[in-house]
Design brief:
Elements (H helix, E strand, L loop, with lengths): L2 E8 L3 H12 L4 E5 L12 H6 L1 H20 L14 H25 L3 E4 L1 E8 L2 E7 L4 E10 L3 E3 L12 E2 L1 H4 L8 E5 L3 H12 L3 E5 L11 H14 L2 E3 L3 E7 L4 E6 L5 E6 L1 E4 L3 E3 L6 H4 L22 E3 L10 H15 L13 E3 L4 E6 L2 H7 L3 E7 L4 H6 L5 E7 L5 E8 L2 H13 L4 H6 L8 H11 L7
Parallel strand pairs: 1-2, 1-6, 2-3, 6-17, 8-15, 9-10, 9-15, 10-11
Antiparallel strand pairs: 4-5, 5-6, 7-16, 12-13, 13-14, 18-19, 19-22, 20-21, 21-22
Helix pairs in contact: 1-9, 3-4, 3-6
The structure holds flavin-adenine dinucleotide and 1,4-dihydronicotinamide adenine dinucleotide.
Length: 475
Amino acid sequence: MPDTFDVVVIGAGPGGYIAAIRAAQLGFSTACVDDWTRDGGKPAPGGTCTNVGCIPSKALLQSSENFEHAGHGFAQHGIDVKGLSIDVGRMLARKDKVVAQNNDGILFLLKKNKVAFHHGRASFAGKADSGWTIRVEGAAPATLTAKQVIVATGSTPRALPGAPFDNVRILDNAGALAIPAVPKRLGVVGAGVIGLEMGSVWRRLGAEVTVLEALPAFLGAADEAVAKEAQKAFAKQGLAIHTGVKITAVKSGKAEVTVEWTDDKGAAQKTTVDRLIVSIGRVPNTAGLGADVAGLKLDERGFVLVDGECRTNLPGVWAVGDVVRGPMLAHKAEEEGVAVAERIAGQRPHVDFNAIPWVIYTAPEIAWVGKTERDLKAEGVDYRVGSFPFSANGRARAMGETTGFVKILADAATDRVLGMHAIGPMASELIAEGVMAMEFGASSEDIARICHAHPTLSEATKEAALAVAKRTLNL
Ligand code: FAD
Ligand code: NAI
């Protein structure tokens, strides 16, 4: 006999487990199926984000930043460190512990909210009287039926043609997070978010890092001034970034990998490295889902086709997160998951795609929300700009972290905040103020009139807002 639920969620990444919790909170009997497995065969809910994405990358970014500070930052504070070394094994073990804590935390949350968790692989088996039949394969096979199904199966890394991942020499994100010893020479293909974050980790620990990016512009999605500042900072740190590159061949040997490429002038180049991270984007994960059995429509790139409210072409079937259009970000997946659960309950939630923050956790950190100047110019919107450097911010000076700035873009006629862009210390935290301002339809004057604690980095945001009206107080 199948187990019958109101809602079955396939995938327990940030999109899936959050959707399941919200559905259960709203009074639905809910099951969540996820196949991620950790050592010993135990379930590891949390998806890419928890297991090989957001969480482990931030753990390694923290460890490597601590190492960098001890080696290069402490001296200015009068702290001399002698005999500094890094035990990569211990660093990786700490990262694994942080991941396991998150896996256990999610299992606890699912249980607390009375979500029935099934560890295994789910696929559509066809229609049931009351909705859909989902087959679960794994250690405890099961058949579930539900009126509402939420597909949250995430994404997987995209390989370079002719250079499959082996996670020994050619690494995907999982491999990049588990290199057992600092490579002398590390290559990175793709100067996107993963390339910059993982390149930074291993560069700080001593690797010579070469990044090869296909596009002519560095960080093309970011504000141009931010991208320029970032490129300058990364070059100073020793990340060798080449843009406008075309990879012509990747030859993987026993001990090294050789990448053949042409540079932005068309000249042939060759780079030999000990390990090569390939971070050229990700592809939606619908393998084995039985999309064809159910008649679930995918687009030409394999994303589940959804409308603006995450409805698929099938009644009662929804899809959220990386497996659908839009940015591949954990918080975007979560917002969609919550919204779908609430729609099933007859509520009318809204996810504002214009106010989804982007963060790159390098040093300096990079964060933005809303429009760039490029966007506004293209849309013909008349806007004003206010910018404030961290070099003029007291807290940043006290921290010794004065690279970067905060920039606010406001509508020239209404002063409404249209975008915020930050590069510098704790930009990841500062951006929340910009998101809040945009969600509340605030003006730059609203931010400028709010009392910000002194001395804090957030005063740079206030000053950037003041700068929109050309009335900074500290510059
Ligand atoms: P996923 O997290 O991919 O989860 C999908 C889950 O479904 C997986 O557990 C998968 O095994 C399971 N599954 C798939 N098919 C089935 C099936 N048929 N049956 C059962 N289970 C199935 N985003 C941020 O916002 N901030 C960051 O700092 C950040 N850092 C990242 C760093 C790296 C290295 C990477 C790779 C990604 C990072 N991301 C970050 C992106 C983020 O991880 C994803 O956007 C997010 O995980 C997407 O969530 P999701 O729920 O859609 O899918
Ligand atoms: P990405 O889309 O951020 O960057 C990929 C880069 O590779 C692009 O700059 C692209 O131009 C380049 N590229 C593509 N094909 C290439 C080729 N053949 N040769 C050279 N360069 C090539 O993708 P990435 O870094 O793989 O990350 C995947 C997703 O994971 C991101 O879109 C992001 O949403 C998410 N992520 C988010 C993080 C965060 O929020 N801090 C951290 C890491 C990942």
